[in-house]
Amino acid sequence: MKFLKNTFYFLTIISFTISISCSKRLDLEPAIGLSSIDVYKDADNYVNVLAKLYAGMSLSGLHGPSGNPDIAGIDEGFSQYIRVLWNLQDLPTDNAICRWNDVGIPEMCKMEWSADNSFVKAMYSRIYYQIPIANVFIKETSDESMSEKGFSNEEQEELRMYRAEARFLRALSYYHAMDLFGNVPFVDETSPIGVFLPEQIQRADLFSWIESELKAIENILMTASAAPYGRASQSACHALLAKMFLNAEVYTGTEKNQDCITYSQKIIDNGSFSLDDQYAHVFMADNHTSPEIIFPVVFDGQYTQTWGGTTFLICASIGSLMDASDYGMNNGWNGLRTTPTFVNTFSDSSLDSRWMFQADSNQTLEIDILTNCPDTSGYLIGKFSNLDQNGNPGSHAQLQHADADFPMFRLADVYLMIAEASLRNGDQATALTYVNMVRERAYGNTNFNLSSVSLDDILEERGKELFWECTRRTDLIRFNKFTGSDLLWSFKGGEINGADVPQYRDLYPLPTYDIVNNINLVQNSGY
Amino acid sequence: MYLRHINKLILLTIVLFSENIYSQYSLSGKIIDNSGEPVIGASVFLKESSSGSSSDINGQYSIQNIEKGNYNLTISVVGFKTISESLTIQSNTVKDFTMTEDALLLNEAVVIGYGTARTKDITGSAVLISDKDFNKGSVTTPEQLIMGKIPGVKINSNNGAPGSGSRIRIRGGTSINASNDPLIVIDGVPLDNGGIDGAANPLNLINPNDIASFVVLKDASATAIYGSRGANGVILITTKRGNGVDNKLKVQFTTNNSLSTIAKYATPLTADQYRDVINEFGTANQIDELGDSSTDWQKQIYRNAYINENNLSISGGIKNLPYRFSFGSKHEEGLLKRHKLDRYSASLNLSPSFLDDHLKLDVNTRYVQTDNFFADQSAIWSANGFDPTLPVYSGDTSYGGYYEFLYSAGGQAGNPIPLAIRNPLGLIMQKDDISNVSRFIGNAKLTYKAHFMPELKAVINVGTDVASSNGSVTIPIQAASSFQQGGYFSEYKMDKSNQLIDGFLNYSNSEKAKKHRIDVTTGYSFQEWSTLRPAYAKFNIAGDTLNPPGIPTDTKNALLSFYGRSIYSFNDKYVVTATLRRDGSSRFSPESRWGVFPSFSAAWIISEESFLKNSELLTYLKARGGYGVTGQQDIYADYPYIANYQQGSVTAQYLFGNQYFTTLRPDGYDYSIQWETTSSTNLGLDFGILNDRISGSFDYYKKETSDLLATVPVVAGTNFTNQLLTNVGSMTNEGVEMNLNFGLINSNSTKLDLGLNGTYNKNLITGLTAVPDTSSIGIQVGDVGGFGNTAQIHTVGYSTFTYFLYEANYDSDGNPIEDQFTDFNNDSIVNIDDRVRSGNPNPKWFFGLNLNLEHKRWYTGFSMRAEVGGYVYNNVAAQSGNFQSGNSTFNTGNIHSSFLETEFLGKSFEQSVNSYYLEKSDFLRMDYFTLGYNFGNQLSDKFRMNAALVINNVFVLSNYSGMDPEVVGGIDNTIYPRPRIFSLNLTFDF
Fold it and tell me: Residues 630-649, chain B: which have Cβ within 8 Å of A?
């Protein structure tokens, strides 16, 4: 008996010893990647995290063009930021039609989306992917946090700049949230990661918050001439502020046209930007050399590959009558068309260099069926291109991914914003000057300058200048023409020639999955 | 005459000599069973002389060199009641024995995890199936051997591809997102359930022919000893060993040759139906494009396939070293053209004993290598959608000669339209998807029986499971599918390993004790898994990089455990068992990683009580009950609690100025994630009636799982992802199992056995959000189209994977009305609030029926399974049973034949998830039918031969309109068809 007892004690000791040495073997860490603590304690890593914050708008995951996606539950190409933004901002307008039969697309064209629509969900998921990753970065780059980590003064200076840029990117995504969804969940760098329910912020309050954020970083950001290409400059900040103020009445009920003028003026006075001589160049493979782009979303055929972004805009536009090699790609996806309503705003066809429609004698202007319409139905558009201004194709060996960057903010937009805000304030002269500058560039001469300009003229000009640049829906809403029956276009409301659409559709619904999971959220009315 | 006398003289001399000089005798005889058949391999053992023999193929045994004296003789063999006798040897003795079958295997030593127990001492729910009861015919993965045999254990093959394995569920799945698979342990080595790249299923790397028995542990009191992995049940596999007692060489060779044919085709429109439909509904263009052919695309891609399998096993003993060596080869063709699986396996078992049986070593090693050629399964989808009026070949030499959709005009004229449907035969013939997978599973177990106290044993078990695979995909330049990029080449590689060390002490007085039997085990276990997967670039045939390498995988996890068990049995009548296990897992944070899993159970062998002991009617009655807590930590992620940042690849960089920077991205994580815990109760009754002619058991169980792991949509803004694996809820599984075995006829020449089992299982979600919210509708799952359109939902108060569909409306003829669904809340919008929860894919009842008839040398038998109460969603019909789905942007294609009934023209979001396509999946299936003849040694006295004809997948009876009602997961996307296999199996024993 004693022997047994002794043996047991002995063995318990052995197993205890083994267990001590072995329980450390349960503290395993991933071999691939870095833990959060390891990332942030080294100042050299911050630029790479910042790169992801920017790349959240151009890449869809960790591996281009697809693989290891950021967002689950949707085809990776469909989930790319610019692509899904375009699907929500241009596809439901007079600018564009898509003939694909993928579930969710006809609903966008007909303005019949539900709270379950995959593109609505994807955009929302993308925005709320950008915001938390920016929040963490902003928290880690606060002054106290940096001092704790013992960074040098030089390092802190540089990181402070990154912090301002991260705040800009976060503000940009919140701007999209405010514009598309209205009253949305709000989280910032003080919010936890994990299990909690964010509060819903009202649209007007979100407007004030974005305004205060942008004004706080305005003077920290680099000036346009100092900022490396691709990074947010002070002028980008001004451009976002100008856009917000132009639409202030929609967001808050109070107009702020004077502020729009102030900030547009700052960009113009800066002098770093000028209108590109050639309109088409702003959308070409080498548009990083265009003097007009204030803030781009960068793509590259070799290093920043995606199935969304400009690759999507180019390939999806290429229909059977177009030659893909004319656009520097090796094939087309035959998806996008435009409406007769939009084509008809160009009365002087090919004299305007923005008339980029593709149609031969076989092509009908009218589109009779929406989904899988014949190749000869509807005019196509060839705006973005993977050729540079010398006609050379982009850098991807098989020409499947485009080099062209997406112009998020550009000078022509600022000119038209200051024109509109001035006109709304009663200043015809300023408005006319800027509208004519845009027209001169488009026509190549002054022969088509206007002698007077009305608000409707400005809306029309914005349509001809900025089509397919993710701004049309916002513009139409400001003019009360997105919903309602003032302006009709093919398949609006599900009818061939367009029909009235109820006003609640000026806002997208919060996706069902979040309404269901977060009891703090109230759905937009009508849904 | 003279000779005769001399013979007698010689004989007499020999006899006299042997009597006087040697004084050693022999004991020999014949051992037969109740029907007069020889019992082979019975071990005849004389305790006092430590000598023995095993009966040969004629049932003859012979023990030599026995000294005069009294002996205790035991004769034992699996499946028969052990004979214990005392006898006296004082001359050469001939003694025959008749053994009676032990239907209940009451004295069988059953492996129960870290030890063995006698069947009668088992207080939990554990079922033993040995090789004589295995399913017959063409079997590639081990679980197919016991399909339909055990109540509570539902096994459905995944599909008909070679080696694709099955889904195994024991007493309902307890998880939503963690694995629902049971833990599988081979010879004491728990396997990693995760997949191996390049293998259709990791279990096809185990040769079923090497398996001697399965023990399935179903309830917590049996599985709690496996702690954090026991929640879904445990399957213990024991492989065949060499013979213990004598050194006789046994050789067995089996050869199976089979023909595999398709049982049922899918139903797209035929060429004539397609012509009619296009003529009626199509545009002028589409009518123009109709071809003149009548192609049955499915017949183009499928074939009759051939399967050949040979197994050779050699077992015996060299001195004190029993061994078994086996070698097997299997060549299995799939129904899709070019699809094949070649498997070579070898195994070696050594079980020597030393120090007078005090030290036993058990070494098991098995090595399997497979060469796979995977046919392109997208050809199945393509065959359903390719225009049947078009010819197979274009008449041209381009694109391999196959008819493909090409651009007719413009700069790309003559080139394949990239996103159009591809020629199904072209896909099969122009893609080489090959892999080479090898797996080694081995263990060495040392058992030391203490000299000073033979009741005490110390065991150390060291095991390893190492798998390694590599493969590649090559598509030639001329193939239309990769024409744009100049062909395609990619490769992959994976290395997985798991290492185990177990050590335990066992005290058991069962050999000596009669009244109080105690069995105590206490031990420790450490197991570590690792997976390594390098990243490779993708190239075209010319060698240009199409895509640089992505992100590699290098991941590990470990489990540290302490366990103990004690079994106390009083008078062979009352048994109590208690187990306890403490597990620590590296997958969870230090605060959450340790768990304690206890269990307690008891049994009362009522038939041993005086009032039943001599009953003629009720020969065996045992009541048992138990309660235990187990866990589930197979979550497909090794570091879910760590905030980790990953680097983007070369093609995911961002430009600042004129320099590209790598992106660093945070992954979503949940710091407090932990395993699921299941506590379960089991009550059971085992019985034997009329001398065990009728035997069986009933079980009632209830399992409650909490901290359910599920991938749920993240509340927007709270994490670095939109879907996260986290603990979100609770569910219950409750049910009854019944098992009845009838020995209907048991005479000298005829035996008829019937086995029937049935299970009722009800699954219910009882809680489902991280942040409790009673108004939440649940988690939508069951993807039907890839754009977030889902057909199922997990909701509190319903079963998992409940169908969640729009309710179709019907006209007065009973036909569904297109795009019209019931607006239940009358708010003029048909949206998610109008979806209806209906059935779910899990059947309420499932049954198995096994019949075996032997008459003289003939034998026949079959095994059937039935499932009742489940539903299947005919997604092929839902997605392609409408005119619009044939109108792809890039080509016109075929649609599902349900269009002829529904005439649905469009395909809206709601129409894709439509109650019209939900059907009952009730079915009755005969898994195998066999007819055989046991030649014995009629053909030659050098070997015994057995021949059998087996048909697998004999028939399926069901009302389902789709191809096969047995769809794992319930959403039918046209699976790789299950073949009907006709085999001729020959077994030779030497």
Answer: 638-639, 642-649
